[in-house]
Specification:
The complex is a heterodimer of chains A (291) and B (236). Helix content of chain A is 73%, strand content 3%. Chain A has a single domain, classed as ABC transporter involved in vitamin B12 uptake, BtuC (Orthogonal Bundle). Chain A contains 11 helices and 2 strands, in the order ααααββααααααα. Chain B has 10 helices and 10 strands. In chain B, the strands form 2 sheets. A 6-stranded mixed beta sheet of chain B has the order 6-7-8-3-9-10, sandwiched between helices. A 4-stranded antiparallel beta sheet of chain B has the order 2-1-4-5, covered by helices on one side. In chain B, α3 runs parallel beside α6. Chains A and B meet through α6 and α7 of A and α2 and α3 of B.
């Protein structure tokens, strides 16, 4: 029982981690909270439903389509909702935040219109396949989700740490002006970051669809707020923090449902934010800002 | 090689630079002197593309480069070591150096990094440490080494001696001289007037956004007006 819950928690947590990574990348480079990230995630989930349920396509095609569509959405978000507000005199620093909230509402309404308000089941051929190890039941879908998450996190870490483009992104995140002095085309880097973050959101959308077998236009908001909670928990703009924070939240939610009261499941994330902000205002992995 | 013609730059409604013209000859070291707020950094930022001038022209090797972005200018051979060094504190010393060579596609980058680490042994010793953990002097050396890795033709240095101990300052000026002797043209902004003029060939004096004096460094060093205002010595 305990181990099964642990597996459930890790599965959920690794999805949260991927959602949070999308937030943290954009925050790192642009210094803004992308409130539309949850809705882009939701579109990824719907692309998954359309490919697998409507067209009976294979899962890999669902991933490919979701990456493509959400990546394009990321580009459009940056090009039309964020870039016009950048480096303009007289634009409030809250303007990009409000702009992304606007995009999130637009996307939610659009999805109501396109997909309908109801709950969409996510068909995948191996949803019911499970293994019995002793007394423990493990679903194949959990293993697949976990594997994809680990591969994605590892690839991202490697890319940020070892490749030229990844280093350019980190330099841009730390200091835009310095990065440009070193020869980084920061405009391109920012666009690329928003595209990658959005595509990761799209992948996470499919993973959630697979895990819970349910996709609705409203799912973006709740996952978006949780992603926000995780990056505050882990430290704003911190990649390791997003991964650890995601796992912590996933495990905490799972255990509160099992051993506590399931009604408090969603409250956990925000209770955690309040506690963390009181004890460690910079987040688990964040740097203290010295005066 | 660098010709700045009548540039005026403003932040919002405040005109910081008013009709500045200056010239840097290939192979020389040129200094811009001035007190805080005179517009020295603004001049540097306008030359390297971080700021766009409202008026005027910046020419590099006869080519009009006004309004180009910094990342484009690095490719044409202008590198800035910004005020306050601006080390990437979350990246290692080695990664900082690699970022210096970011725009290059040749296969001598590794060799060049080895070379600057030989010139600055402390950077080699600490190449795995995060840039933010270095001392002020070490960060300045890293910033200069990083800029050199872009293989600049013109190196802009914005107050390289700021906040450093006197011995380290002397070291930095020695390095600047060496860089110049190795064939890189240098444009230097300094408050440390005496030392700056001693290493340089030509100097400009900036006051509230205007050039109020210019001349050969030796002449400026012996000009009583300049001495009093910027070298902290009463003319006798």
């Amino acid at each position: 029982m305990l181990i099964e819950q642990l597996i459930n928690g890790i599965t959920l947590g690794s999805i949260y981690a991927i959602v949070a990574l999308g937030f943290t990348l954009v925050f790192g480079v642009l210094g803004i909270i992308n409130m539309a990230h949850g809705e882009i995630f939701m579109f990824g989930a719907f692309i998954g439903v359309i490919v697998t349920s409507t067209f009976k396509g294979p899962l890999w095609l669902a991933f490919a389509a979701a990456i493509l569509v959400t990546g394009i959405m990321g580009y459009l978000l940056e090009r039309f909702a964020l870039r016009p507000l950048r480096n303009k005199q007289g634009v409030s620093h809250l303007a990009p935040l409000i702009s992304t909230i606007g995009v999130s509402i637009l996307l939610e309404n659009l999805s109501h219109h396109l997909f309908g308000a109801g709950n969409h089941p996510f068909n995948n051929t191996f949803a019911e396949i499970s293994f019995q190890i002793g007394s423990i039941t493990v679903y194949l879908v959990q293993i697949v989700i976990f594997m994809i998450s680990v591969i994605l996190m590892y690839t991202l870490s490697y890319w940020l740490g070892k490749t030229k483009a990844g280093k350019a992104l980190r330099a841009t995140a730390e200091n835009l002006e310095t990065a440009s002095l070193l020869g980084v085309d920061t405009k391109k880097t920012i666009t690329m970051t928003v595209i990658i973050a959005s595509a990761m959101g799209g992948i996470a959308g499919i993973l959630v669809g697979m895990a819970f077998n349910s996709v609705t236009p409203q799912m973006g908001l709740s996952i978006g707020l949780k992603g926000l909670a995780i990056i505050i928990l882990g430290g704003m703009g911190n990649v390791k923090g997003a991964m650890a924070g995601g796992l912590i939240l996933g495990l905490a939610e799972t255990f509160i449902v099992v051993y506590g009261n399931s009604g408090y499941r969603d409250a956990i994330a925000f209770a955690a934010i309040i506690v963390i902000l009181l004890v460690r205002p910079q987040g688990l992995f964040g740097q203290k800002i010295s005066a | 090689m660098l010709k700045v013609q009548g540039i005026s730059t403003s932040y919002g409604k405040i005109n910081v630079l008013k009709n500045i013209s200056l010239e840097v000859e290939e192979g020389s070291i040129v200094t811009i002197l001035g007190a805080n707020g005179a517009g020295k950094s603004t001049t540097m930022k306008t030359i390297c593309g971080l700021l766009k001038p409202q008026e005027g022209k910046v020419e590099f090797f006869g080519e009009d480069v006004t309004g180009r972005r910094p990342d484009q200018l690095v490719r044409t051979g202008i590198a800035l070591v910004p005020e306050g060094r601006q080390i990437l504190s979350g990246m290692t010393v080695l990664e900082n150096l690699e970022m210096g060579a970011y725009h290059r596609k040749d296969n001598e980058i590794k060799h060049d990094i080895e070379k600057v680490m030989e010139r600055f042994p402390i950077l080699k010793e600490r190449h795995q440490q995060l840039g933010g953990t270095l001392s002020g002097g070490q960060q300045q050396m890293l910033a200069i080494a990083r800029a050199l890795l872009s293989r600049p033709k013109l190196l802009l240095l914005d107050e390289p001696s700021m906040g450093l101990a006197p011995l380290v300052v002397a070291d930095i000026f020695k390095i600047i001289k060496e860089i110049n002797e190795a064939g890189t043209t240098v444009l230097l902004v300094e408050q440390n007037a005496r030392q700056a003029l001693r290493v340089s060939d030509y100097g400009y004096v900036l006051e509230t956004g205007k050039i109020i004096a210019e001349g050969k460094s030796n002449d400026l060093l012996t000009d009583p007006r300049i001495m009093e205002a910027y070298l902290g010595r009463k003319s006798s």
